């Protein structure tokens, strides 16, 4: 579906972090044919891996989940910024891709994506001009951005007025939360902005958007109440806009949904209006899932979604960062060759999952439950062991430790290339990111 | 000095974060000729800038500082991982470059650097083999790595034994600190490792290394006492190794020094031994300096270094990340188009320095002292203003805000290309990073 040919011809070499040291430069497309295997010691460290079986599982899980709810999916592309993963998401049925800014939109359009939601305010002459250029160049491009204030709309009208538009720009009215991030803080302001968009000569109102993810607590009762109330505000605003004829049509987008409570959104957001409604979720992290924050939040999603989703295996963590033990300087302490440059540390530190000694072990063994990454420097992690356990004594300089991460977004942006692996940790390909 | 020709021919385009949207793909070498200017709105946001005048000043400052102390400088390249900056550092008199791992060594060697210290343990068959390959390929390559345990040395000997070495590998004995990171924790262990290295058929002892940066407090009295004691341990160990004839020679490296207390190292570390001693500092962050952690620590460096260094202008912050105000959703709050993907947040959040309205202001104006980035999400920053001050009322959607950062390393790794600018914010070039 997407045109990845030129991307796959790009040459990668050991100057890129994670690429096997000493290996010859090769096109991205040739990585899978090298037969590299983590457990045979073919890779260098640290290295970021994507488990293909988990990715496949997660694509199918989310396809089925959204199909069951009737919602569409425009996964947030900012998580991976990897067109190869975007292609998989679209092949699995995603309606489009969500982005965070116009650079990310440009990456999507470059590779052939033609339905994009920018879950952020459009502004800046350069950014607005680029959106207009892309829209004129690609008549089949459907692009929606957020608007939450009259000054923002004025900036758009000023820049757009300098261009000849063949069709209006399409804006989603953003509903916000008091004390939150962007978005209109009350009903009256929201309607004022909606009316101004509808009256604009350059911009049409294509729907309503909000983001519930920042106020979630993990306490299902509170989360249901909060998200339910926010969706009710969206519905009420949508009904008012529809009643006033502010939507340009031919359909109306209602969009919300991060990766932590998309189930509540999918149940509460759908609304009957005078035109067909597209209910669009924007979860991004589901695709790799994680071993921390989203793993915890998924328990709530499953518990709230009925027996079918409780018995079915949930999303699986696909992203692992592997490092070597470079020193065992004190009992109970191992220093790993990975750090803040290599793995997320903004919600939790990396979670040690497995250990492996090349030439001795057959397959990675789970680490004892007490092992914990207690700190990271730029290039080092401090792995705290159970000081008196035998398994900890055995962890030697040179051993490999595989870590899960918490919050995939802030790991992806640290790697220009991540390797996909099968369940035997043979490298099947390489995924290039665009940050 | 370095061969940057191929690097400068690399094509950059708007798919790379920070590159002007809609601009045609051009070679890196052509960026400076475009005449782009931040204040005319030619760039897109967020964007990372390096102020050339500050870089030049910092190169000269550090050249003079090390010259005054007699120490050599092998700046830590992990900070920027930018060969173009390495070239400037070497041109300013740096002895070599420090790296954190073999991938970073490979980048240095690729571009022609021939003196490299890896301030980390060498281990891993793939890594060891690559060091040997590079050493054989480049007889003029002088490469030193750290060793802090017998198991590590055994791994090196096992792998190196499979190769025919034309010259021994060169190891620095690492002295550590109880409760710290890597490094031998006591004198006896250090001497045991040193003797084993000296007795090795593959590895020679080229000096002693330690890193004082992690235990610093910013309290000069405590820092002087701590660093002084650590340097005394290095000296004592060096004297013992020298007495036993463990150093291979022809010179002996003694190395320490991050970017926060390199002055204490430079005063305390030099030691007279039986062969010429190279006292090598490894500060990396001085080159861009910062507006947070290192700005605070530099006060101690200056205060400790006498009147000459107190009256002379200190290091200057060269690194700025600029973003637009995308929303003013509540009084006292501005949401900026930058986040955890764009700027360091591990020691401090970004520090708002200046504001600018394109078309109205002539030059960026300092922001009121009360303004503060209170939080960041992946792609957003929450700028808290003085809710009742006029200057805050005036900050409008679309305005630019320039932020200083704290800890340059974790900003550099978020950008594949940073732009150098003159004092009028005209783009003079682009710096490519290798993470």
Q: Give helix % range of chain A.
A: 25-40%
Oligomer: homodimer
Q: Give the largest chain-chain interface (CB within 8 Å).
A: A-B, 75 and 75 residues
Rg over alpha carbons of chain A: 23 Å
How would you concisely characterize the structure shown here?
The structure is a homodimer of 435-residue chains. By secondary structure, chain A is α/β, with parallel strands linked by helices.
Structural topology:
2 copies of one chain form a homodimer.
Chain A: H1 5-9, E1 11-12, E2 26-27, E3 47-51, H2 52-69, E4 72-73, H3 83-91, E5 97-99, H4 102-110, E6 115-121, H5 125-137, E7 142-147, H6 150-160, E8 169-175, H7 187-199, E9 203-210, H8 220-243, E10 252-256, H9 262-268, E11 277-281, H10 293-304, H11 307-311, E12 319-330, E13 333-336, E14 351-356, E15 365-366, E16 372-376, E17 381-384, H12 390-394, E18 400-404, H13 409-412, E19 417-421, E20 427-432
Parallel strand pairs in A: 3-19, 4-11, 5-6, 6-7, 7-8, 8-9, 9-10, 10-11
Antiparallel strand pairs in A: 1-2, 3-12, 12-13, 12-18, 13-17, 14-15, 14-18, 16-17, 19-20
Helix pairs in contact in A: 4-5, 5-6, 7-8
């Amino acid at each position: 579906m997407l045109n990845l040919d030129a991307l796959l011809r790009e040459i990668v070499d050991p100057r890129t972090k994670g690429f096997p040291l000493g290996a010859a430069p090769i096109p991205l497309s040739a990585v899978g044919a090298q037969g590299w295997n983590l457990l045979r010691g073919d890779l260098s460290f640290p290295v970021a891996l994507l488990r293909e079986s988990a990715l496949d599982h997660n694509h199918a899980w989310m396809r089925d989940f959204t199909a069951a709810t009737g919602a569409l999916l425009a996964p947030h592309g900012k998580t991976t910024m990897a067109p190869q993963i975007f292609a998989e998401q679209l092949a699995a049925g995603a309606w489009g891709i969500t982005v965070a800014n116009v650079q990310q939109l440009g990456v999507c359009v470059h590779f052939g994506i033609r339905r994009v939601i920018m879950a952020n305010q459009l502004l800046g002459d350069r950014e607005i001009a680029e959106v207009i250029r892309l829209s004129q160049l690609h008549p089949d491009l459907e692009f929606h951005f957020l608007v939450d204030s009259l000054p923002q709309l004025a900036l758009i009208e000023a820049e757009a007025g300098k261009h000849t538009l063949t069709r209006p720009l399409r804006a989603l009215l953003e509903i916000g939360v008091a004390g939150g991030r962007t978005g209109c803080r009350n009903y009256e302001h929201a309607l004022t902005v909606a009316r101004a968009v509808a009256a604009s000569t350059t911009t049409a109102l294509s729907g309503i958007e909000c983001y519930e993810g920042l106020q979630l607590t993990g306490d299902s009762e509170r989360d249901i109440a909060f998200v339910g109330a926010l969706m009710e505000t969206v519905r009420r605003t949508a009904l008012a806009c529809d009643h006033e004829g502010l939507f340009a049509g031919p359909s109306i987008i209602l969009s919300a949904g991060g990766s932590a409570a998309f189930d509540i959104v999918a149940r509460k957001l759908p609304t009957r209006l005078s035109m067909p409604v597209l209910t669009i979720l924007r979860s991004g992290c589901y695709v790799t899932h994680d071993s921390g924050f989203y793993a915890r939040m998924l328990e709530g999603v499953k518990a709230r979604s009925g027996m079918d989703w409780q018995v079915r295996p949930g999303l699986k963590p696909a992203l692992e960062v592997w490092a070597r033990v470079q020193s065992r300087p004190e009992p109970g302490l191992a220093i790993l060759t990975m750090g803040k440059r290599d793995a997320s540390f903004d919600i939790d530190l990396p979670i040690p999952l497995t250990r492996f000694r090349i030439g001795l072990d057959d397959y990675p063994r789970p680490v004892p439950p007490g092992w914990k990454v207690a700190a990271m420097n730029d290039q080092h992690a401090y792995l705290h062991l159970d000081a008196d356990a035998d398994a900890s004594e055995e962890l030697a300089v040179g051993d490999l430790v595989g870590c899960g991460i918490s919050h995939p977004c802030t790991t992806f942006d640290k790697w220009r290339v991540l390797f996909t692996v099968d369940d035997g940790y043979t490298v099947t390909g390489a995924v290039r990111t665009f940050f």
